[in-house]
Design a protein that fits this description.
Blueprint: E1 19-22, E2 25-30, E3 33-35, E4 42-45, E5 48-53, E6 56-59, E7 67-70, E8 73-78, E9 81-84, E10 89-92, E11 104-110, E12 113-123, E13 131-137, E14 140-141, E15 151-157, E16 167-170
Parallel strand pairs: 1-4, 2-5, 3-6, 5-8, 6-9, 7-10, 8-11, 9-12, 10-12, 11-13, 12-14, 12-15, 13-16
């Protein structure tokens, strides 16, 4: 969507992120809970040295991703509990040709619990700049709320023919 068409507020359908950082270094998000947010819950973009630790992400609704790390370098996501209406954690790197920040790279996701959402770990769908060097370990995909809000897919890679991008070195 063109920048001039990105309008927030009454009468518009573009919801804001709950926590948003753009172009920061040494970001620490630790020991709190988000609840019923309007859109993506945490969205650092073009940041370096990002840590999200011991956070409870609790919001069920459309487009309620828990953690969207977008074109960030050096990300640690650990001991986070996800209960989302969309992706638990989604690694992104720009939409379509909006790739000036480069790839998402050098991310570690560990010791997290994914209770509900479309994907436990999702690569994309906005990944025009690419996604590389991602390491995930010791994750619990519990599907705790399967009757009302199931966890659909543990690891999800998504894009479309117009968005481009690449995925390399995902472990």
């Amino acid at each position: 969507m063109a920048i001039e068409k990105r309008i927030f507020g009454v009468g518009h359908y573009l919801c804001p992120c709950m926590v948003k950082f753009i172009g920061y270094t040494n970001v620490l998000m630790e020991s709190y809970r988000t609840f019923n947010t309007p859109f993506w819950q945490h969205h650092p973009t073009n940041c370096k040295n990002v840590v999200m630790r011991s956070v409870t992400v609790d919001s069920i609704g459309p487009n309620n991703d828990g953690f969207d790390h977008d074109a960030c370098d050096m990300v640690l996501c650990e001991n986070v509990v996800f209960n989302t209406g969309d992706d638990c954690t989604a690694i992104k790197s720009g939409k379509d040709l909006d790739t000036q920040y480069g790839p998402a790279q050098n991310h570690v996701i560990q010791n997290c619990t994914m209770n509900s959402g479309h994907g436990g770990i999702t690569l994309g769908s906005e990944m025009g700049g690419g996604v590389q060097k991602i390491y995930a370990r010791n994750l619990q995909m519990l599907n705790q709320f399967w009757a009302t809000n199931s966890l659909n897919i543990a690891i999800r890679i998504k894009t479309n023919m117009n968005r481009g991008g690449f995925v390399k070195d995902f472990r």
